[in-house]
Amino acid sequence: MGHETFEGATGATRTPFPPSVPDRELRRMRDMLDGVFAFVGLLSADGVLVEANHAAVEALGLCREDIIGKPLWDTYYWSHARASREMMRNAVERAALGEVVRSDFVVRAGDEKFIVIDATFAPLREDGRVTQIVVSAVDVTQRVSHAETARKIRHQLETAQRIAHIGSWHWDFAAGTLGWSDQCYRLMGWDPAGPRATLDAFRAAVHPADCAAVEAALGRAVEAGAPADIEHRVVWPNGDVHIIHQLGEAEFDVNGKPVRMIGTSRDVTVLRNTCDELVEEKLHAEAASQTKSRFLANMSHELRTPLNAIIGFSELLLNGDGLSAAKANEYLNDIHASGKHLLCVINDILDISRIEAGKVDVRDETLAAGDLIEAAQRMVRARAEDAGVELRCHAGSAALTLKVDRRLMMQALLNFLSNAIKFTESGGRVDIEVRRNTQGGADIVVRDTGIGMSADDVTRVGERFLQADGRLSRKYEGTGLGLVIAKRLVELHGGELVVQSKLGAGTAMTIKLPPARVISAAPALAAASVKR
Questions:
Q1: 170 with 261: CB under 8 angstroms?
Q2: Residues 6+ apart with CB under 8 A from 394
Q3: N- to C-terminal Cα separation, the chain
Q4: 484, 493, 499: which is closest to 514 by C-alpha?
Q5: CA distance linking residue 320 with residue 405, whole number of Å
Q6: Closest CA to 370 of 337, 391, 397
Q7: Which of 356, 386, 402 finishes a domain?
Q8: Is 151 inside any structural domain?
């Protein structure tokens, strides 16, 4: 078998024992190797196993004859997989060329048991030529298992942090260094594979308006080891602003001095934006509720007033045996007027209820825009005459053919015209005009020289439950519901109501119909101008 050799667990090459080594010393060395709780074997240069210690043989329930004299890759240990045998053959061939080879291998340690070994192949030389190979190996199954478990836990933690938008970090106070999980980098809009995080880089990313609060929190953490709990904004490299919630706890040395802080970072941008939206919606809901209450109170007044008049005058007629015919006729006219007003209020309430419930259908028909506005101005002509208001109708330089619901569009136009006449003093003027706009649609404009509206009132035109608000409706009569009805009718056509007004300078109500509502442009209709 040649010279006896010895190879330690480290795989360092030693010179073979010369023949002069006493047998007693060789036996002692063999006993030492057999007592090692690791695999130690000796291979020929071509990979045949010529010697192995006790741990390599008896511990697996094998006989020496099962493995000695065979190529190492053909022994029981590697009988489970061809790939393992090829890895072992490759390691032996490299060692035979003079290379110290170290690698992990999966080997069979029983019928259903496999272990991972950390094996080293070290060449032994004689006269500069590799004559034998010492192989040593230790069982690292537990270490590998722990490493794999740690890897899985780390992967699970990183995945959970990424899904929850939570990162973990630690801050070494003395060294002034930061350690961040990958998710911490993502929360800042940074690449985890990029430059490592530093305090200066973090501070530079904090929103300028939040720097003082963050610095104060960091200062308290360093000086007193106080827990950190702060929300602040960070500016990403692309300019996006995110809100980060930081939580941290300090750790102390044996002298009670804070040495580091460990904490988490969480992106709460969506949460905070949602909270802000909910608060805003709550305020809007409360305002709408208050407005609705005022509306209902005003509407109750609008309903009670004509009803009281009807009941009062009818009682006078029933009990007025000595009433003159003229007085009785006056009371009857009052009852009739109150009844008409009450009917208008009820109709407005029913109309807005149907519109809000989506129960109003738009039935399109083709009609000339000039015919529509002329018909509308004829219907309010008498009212304009009574008010001493001049009424003008302009068909425009290119009369348009529209596809609209005649009844609904007429209802909207009559409301705008009636309001314009109502709020224009005697001697004023109301114009109604139709024209093609630059977007290819049509504009129908009702413009007056009346009292106008404040900028605040303009922004509130058409809001629900605001139409019956008191001062103007009490002075000029009406609930104001007609305006919101008209606005909804325009919107049912896919259009938009644009209001331009200034106190004391009049108002312009523009119905902007989309291009889909314009069929064609026809020869111009002659403009009509009538003083009423």
A1: yes
A2: 431, 432, 433, 434, 527
A3: 133
A4: 493
A5: 50
A6: 397
A7: 356
A8: no
Residues 516 and 370 in one domain: yes
Retrieve residue 120's tokens. 């080293």
Helix 406-422 with 481-492: angle, nearest 10 deg: 140
Give buried/exposed letters for 461-471 (b at 16+ CB in 10 A, else e). Answer: bbeebbbbbee
Distance CA 253, CA 478 (A): 79
Structure tokens of 385? 């005459």
Q: Give the DSSP per-residue string, 294-331.
A: HHHHHHHHHHHHHHHHHHHHHHHHHH-TT--HHHHHHH
In this structure, the answer to whether residues 378 and 330 fall within a common structural domain is: no
Q: Is 516 inside a domain boundary?
A: yes
Find the domain containing 380 and state its range.
Answer: 365-530
Q: What share of the chain is helix, strand, coil (3-state, %, to 5)?
A: 45, 25, 30
**Residue whose C-alpha is closest to residue 59's, from 105, 107, 109, 104:** 109
Name the domain boundary from 88, 104, 139.
139
Facing residues of 432 across strands? 393, 446
**Are 113 and 78 members of one domain?**
yes
Whether 469 shows a pLDDT value over 50: the answer reads no
Strands 241-252 and 258-267: antiparallel
Residues 280 and 416 in one domain: no
Total domains present in the chain: 4
Report if residue 13 sits inside a domain: no
Considering the domain architecture, whether residues 220 and 336 belong to the same structural domain is answered as no
C-beta of residue 115 within 8 angstroms of C-beta of residue 107: yes
Q: At 512, which helix (H) or strand (E)?
A: strand 506-513
pTM passes above 0.85: no
- Among residues 210, 198, 206, the alpha carbon closest in space to that of 172 is found at 198
Q: How confident is the model at residue 8 (pLDDT cuts 50, 70, 90)?
A: very low
* Run of H or E including 115: strand 114-126
Structure tokens at 54: 């006790």
Say yes or no: 520 and 371 in one domain.
yes
269-319 vs 325-356: helix crossing angle, rounded to 10? 160
Shared-domain flag, residues 62 and 127: yes
Tens digit of each residue's pLDDT (9 = 90 or more) over 483-531: 888 888 899 999 999 999 888 888 999 999 999 999 875 444 333 333 4
Q: State the alpha helices, DSSP H only, in 127-233.
A: 141-164, 182-187, 199-205, 211-224
C-beta separation of 244 from 213 below 8 A? no
Half-sphere exposure of 503 (CA within 13 A, CB side): 4
